[in-house]
Design goal:
Length: 229
Amino acid sequence: MYQARDLPRPDPRVPHLADVTPSVLAAMGAPGFQPRIAVPYQAAGACVLLVDGLGADLLDRYAADAPVLAGLSRQTLQVGFPSTTAAGLAAVGTGCRSGEHGMVGMTFRLPGVGVINALRWRPHPWGADLREDVVPEAVQPRPTVFERAEAGGVQVSVISGAQFDGSGLTRAVLRGGRYRGVHALGDLAATVRSVLIDRGFCYAYHADLDLVGHVHGPGSDAWRMQLRQ
């Protein structure tokens, strides 16, 4: 049985994943955003790229497979608890921590509904699509950072897999701006570049490393080959 002293405790001195997007928008001069993380420059356009499944420890261990990313590494962030995709994307999209945005795991219980899978927006372990009966914007009603930035006059794009366009999780935590669905890494990179050329802001999401990690394990040959890409 766990004692209170055994539970993980966040270090208030270490920035959180939820601090990234507001800080980058502050560096762009977007109204209403404060620099929670020091960004030592002003930006005309910017991209927050999330490589799912790649943490600081893994990047340090396999730096030879990703020398550019490893060379850019500076300050470590807390990803929060739980360290799962749904909670992490919600932190980036809302600028809030799990206790505030309420997306407390890949699955969680909603009153009157039961346990839902946040990635599929269906009952857990499986069932019919819940988007009509369990409206994502009502489950997570806080304005996203993308909605706030767009209201402040920033050109905002969300760049992620085409299959996630309009999904329950997208609507709950990544709504706002223009959704640009992509199909592969080159497609994602080209779309990011077009946003930056136009001096806009984009959040880009790459899922394949996390997928390969779940199938083959972090550090496997397949995972390392994907990291090199």
